[in-house]
Structure formats: structure tokens, C-alpha cells
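Lab notebook page, bench 4
Experiment: in silico fold of construct C2
Operator: M.H.
Input chain length: 246 residues
Purpose: comparison with the prior construct
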Amino acid sequence: MNLLEHVGRYSILMYQTFSLPQKWKLFFKQTVKEVEKLGANSLPITFIISLFMGAVMTMQTQMNIENPLLPSYTVGLVTRDTLLLEFCSSILCLILAGKVGSNIASEIGTMRISEQIDAMDIMGVNSANYIILPKITGFVLFIPLLVIWSMFCGLIGGYFISLMTDLITPATYIYGIQYWFIPWYVYYSLIKSVIFAFIIASVSSYYGYYAYGGALDVGKASTNAVVNSSILILMLNVILTKILLS
């Protein structure tokens, strides 16, 4: 199947998905479940990754700064801006594309090959709307909290390094993360993450929804979902950076 066919089928699926739910109460109930499954369950891995990345960024920045003209608080400033501008939105979403994307694609793909989706269509239920819309809504609503949580954990990771090593003092590190703070960087990161979350949820749903065959095809759908979501995130990251920061 060529690119144009994929774009067409994806567009038709999204048109079917974003229609008014037949039962709003059921939609809200499903959305809450997806918020917990896709969003809240991602808090631990976000914590671990962000904590260690913040620590590593602090250590590498300090150990690679040899210019005596640079002030010591540069370490905190560089760590903060790296986390805000790139890691907590783009890199985090690339990681979540593997966790959340594969989860969505495998779940919907299993429903497809077990003919649950076909049964819904026969009963007159809009299967795309019923299955996919709560997943997209739940993940997009929760991703800003994951990004803010990642920012906090990353900065805490750098602070632990300042406490446990002699690379930088805690006071200097804290001054660095406060120095010349630009609030737009936080909004920039949140805007990107919401768009990336939509890409992850919708693309993964697309590959799962059209997974025909057996268990092996569900695995292929999950792989395609993660790979293509990651590629789209990297492409959009360049475009959004140009638009939002220029």
C-alpha cells in the first residue's frame, strides 16, 4: 500500500472517529479508563527516565564546560532549557510512542482479529468512534500533566547530582535554573506534546484498526505504529520549532 492510500484511509478513519458519541455517558466512562491506562500508568516510567536524564544532563554539562569565562550557573540554565525545549516534549513523546502506541495498536488489533470490531459494525455501532475517540481524548488530556511531571523530575535529578557530588553546589544549580527564565518555553513544550500525543494515539489506532490476519499481524501493526509515530514526531518537531520559536 502506498503513502497516498494510507493517508486516505487514515483521513476516513479520523472522520468516522470524530463524530458525536452515540452515548455520552459511556464515552466519558471510557475516557476516564483511558486516562488511567494510557496516562496515569505512564507516570512511573516518566519519573524514572526524567530523573536520570536530568542527572546525566547536569553531569555532562558541568564536565564539558572548560571555558573560564562561562559562569558556574550555566550548568543549571543549560539543564533547564534542554529539558523544557526538547526532552520533556519530543524525547518523552518518542519514548511514550513505544509504550502507549504499542499498547493501543495491539489492543485494537486484537479486537480486529477476534472480530469484535466486525460485530460492532454489524450491530450498527460506530466502532471507530466507540474505540478510538476515548483513547485519543484521554491521552491528549493527560499529556500536559506528564510533561510538567517530567520537567519537575528532570530538575530534581539535576539537584540530586548537586547534593551528592562536588561538580556543582546546590545554590549555584538552583540559581542557574531560575536565571533568565522564559515562560514561553513551557507553553512551547506543552503545545508540542499535545500535538505529538494526538499523533501517537491516532496513528497507533489506525494501524491497530486495520490489522487483519493473526497474532503475527498484531505484532506487525504495533511495530508499524511505533515506527511511523516516531517518524512523524521527528518531522513535526522541526516544523513546530520553526513556527513556535521563530
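Observations: Residues 74-113 form the longest helix (40 residues). The chain has a mean pLDDT of 92.
Next step: discuss at group meeting.
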